[in-house]
What we know:
The structure holds two protein chains of two kinds.
Chain A lengths: L2 E4 L2 E4 L6 H7 L23 E4 L6 E2 L9 E4 L3 H17 L14 H9 L22 E3 L9 H9 L6 E3 L6 E3 L13 H5 L5 E3 L12 E6 L8 E7 L2 E7 L12 H5 L13 E4 L2 E4 L2 H12 L7 E5 L5 H13 L5 E2 L29 E5 L3 H4 L1 H12 L4 E5 L10 E2 L7 H9 L5 E5 L1 H4 L4 H8 L4 E2 L2 E2 L1 E3 L6 H6 L11 H10 L4 E5 L13 E6 L4 H5 L2 E4 L8 E4 L5 E4 L12 H11 L9 H11 L40 H4 L2 H17 L5
Parallel strand pairs in A: 1-5, 15-16, 15-24, 17-18, 17-20, 18-19, 20-23, 24-25, 25-26
Antiparallel strand pairs in A: 1-2, 3-4, 3-5, 6-9, 7-8, 10-11, 11-12, 13-14, 13-26, 21-22, 27-28
Chain B lengths: L19 H11 L11 H11 L6 H10 L4 H10 L11 E6 L2 H5 L2 H12 L12 E6 L11 E3 L3 E4 L3 H12 L7 E2 L20
Parallel strand pairs in B: 1-2, 4-5
Antiparallel strand pairs in B: 1-3, 3-4
Helix pairs in contact in B: 1-2, 2-3, 3-4, 6-7
Amino acid sequence: MPKLTINGIEVEVPAGATVLQACQQAGVEVPHFCYHERLTIAGNCRMCLVEQEKAPKPIAACAMPVAENMVIHTDSERAKKARKGVMEFLLINHPLDCPICDQGGECDLQDQAMAYGFDRGRYQENKRAVKDKDFGPLVETSMNRCIHCTRCVRFIGDVAGVADLGGIGRGENMEIDTFIGQALGSELSANIIDLCPVGALTSKPYAFTARPWELRKTESIDVLDAVGSNIRIDSRGPAVLRILPRLHEDVNEEWISDKTRFACDGLTKRRLDRPYLRRAGKLAETTWQDAFAMIATRLKGVAGDRMAAIAGDLADAEAMFALKELMASLGSANIDCRQDGAALDGSNRAGYLFNTTIAGIEKADAVVLIGTNPRLEAAIINARLRKRYLQGGFRVGAFGPKLDLTFPVTSLGDGPQDLVARATEFLKDAKNPMVIVGQGALRRKDGGAILAAARDLAVRDGWNGFNVLHLAASRVAGLDMGFVPGANGRDVEGILAGCEKGEIDFVYLLGADEIDTKRLGSAFVVYQGHHGDKGAARADVVLPGSAYTEKDAIYVNTEGRVQLARRATFPPGDAREDWAILRALSGSLGKALPYDTLAALRTKLTQAYPTFGAIDQVPHAAWGSFGKAGTIDAAAFVYPVTDFYHTDSISRASPTMDACLAARMETDARKTGTHG
Amino acid sequence: MSGHVDTAPFEQPASFAFTPENLEKAKGYIAKYPPGRQASAVLWLLYLAQDQHDGWVPRAAMDHIGGILSMPPVRVYEVASFYTMFNLKPVGRHYLQICTTTPCWLRGSDQVVDACKKKLGIGIGETTPDKKFTLLEVECLGACVNAPVIQVNNKDFYEDLDAASTEALIDALSRGEAPPKGSVTGRQTSAPVGGPTTLTEIK
């Protein structure tokens, strides 16, 4: 490991590190624009110039590999003069429009100009003018401000893997552009807004909404897929204005998907803000008391086996736990959290988790995807797979119709024909193989058999490569606490069939929108949730709950990582936190649940299921048997997600997501030549 | 200082494919680079495409090249737009590049430029309405010893020009003739203007 001296501090860094990284290790800040630790090195902004002894001129710290006995000065007169010169050059063409720029207050150029800028301009010439580009409904452009760091080009090409952006032209005429004027075709495209060190790329839905210092920042968890991306919710008053990624090396690094970022405008649309009661076929506003009284009346005398509860994809662990206990106290075993009928039982934790972990993907050397399209189902995990692919020596095989995952995929068949033989053959030379079983496989009739067949494909000594990729943020928590049918209980299919036959009189939907509500028959349906979606449309009583930004709640991601969502804003109108609604309902049914605070509920939950106590950890799940023997049908897999932008009640309510879908459809139509 | 200029719209062909001969040539260029590094042949292929497609590279050609070299189309756009030698919009049938760098300028390239402008009625960077001529001012073409120089269609050099010979050249080109390449004064390649001054005894 080379040793070098930075400003008199001796540091030892790994060979191959750059001078900039060594400076960071020594605690010395070097200003930079184009350098980003997760992107390839470009070395074109020149802001990181430092003085190296015995070098004839200042060196770009970001691009210079360290060597033994280097002596670096970052605050010498020469280094400072070099940076001031670079800053002056960068500002030749950068407009002085900070007061009307959305980046103001969180702009790298603004901050560094305070340190290295000159207090007046020495250039009389006109600044260059660049036409703004159309990058689709998410990214607003103001290309006059661009300083050509090419972070966006490198992100879109390398991390997102769609290579839509490029530096077109050269020298003073260079422009960042798609060249063909189409929206960016990536599910991660909006990360370039965060990467842009100036105000050239800003958020279109958030444009001119707020200044960063006005916002209250709440660190929370995303629930729109099962990745559990770490997010920061920026809110002002009652409104969530934007969502930004938060660094978590083991989950989302510092990226989030476009849905995670921009579906938040769905939080103000189609909200359930007061209880509703169906009177003469129409839902009418009512009070909590009347709603509870109605439920109590309808439940009176109903036997436990004639009632049922289904938990939806966005339900938090506390609410599911409360609902489970309430149903148990009413004597019902008909509960299920698997709206899509996935063939996962909660009996073995390792049997439904992403055991390799997301960060563990980087240690794998081959993966077989079974009925899953990770690009649409978990864009962040797909980015991690691509990252591993770019490191080399990584093979991807897939059972399912052809996919564009931004990296090469070997097709192993459209359906699971010869699954074990083909997958074993594909993985036979791999030291750390992975299989990822998607809901496209598990929600089939032969899901259990596929699960059993996939069980041993990728397990080696000290390496568990068996992974289930979930779609629903609530699913792992539900399985962890056994929110599945008890003895002689009905699962979702059984409940719906029971409703059709008139064997179920009462159904409690905890945010469950992804079921066929037509099949609920004449059952009395209570819907507790936050959006007026399919479930609420069918309900006889609607109880307004909270969305994920409005409650302190536990979610467990597909890895089995328990994470805390925190309240950023209050739920609208009369809506309440979900566990509290269930607690209040239990009281008016005379079956009061034994907790009056969230803390007490969590204590009970953790006592009953200790995994919920290990916040932000992925405890090793014991290996055991799961799945069930059976024949596997050779029919082709159907991927569960076809529309990335609309997967749940929040994103379905979001106008931005609608705009994204429209832009994507137009791009696709143009690609296939059916446009216009 | 530069500013964005909206240019008149022009029609991009819907598709492009190399002719069989050019495809053979392209394969030859690609074979010069190690496997996996075939993207290095992008300049060669762009040049071929420009030659095949009336002196300019349409977007369909760049997409086609991206497909052949398995590189994302935008990487081809980047290269093609970086080099001024590639035309990304239609040019006239005769693409005149006049050198105005110091040696040509000293030898009267201003007169050559003026003759072109007068004769064709267009300015630098413009195309005649009949789409026959495009005029361009370029930096050194590397034929300083025979200055001033015009390069036609990226390959033919006409040297030792003055106003009259430039007009004659344009006349000949517009008649569809192909005047002999090289010095218009009849000098042998780049030998001294008045004939050889050394090695005269060798016959």
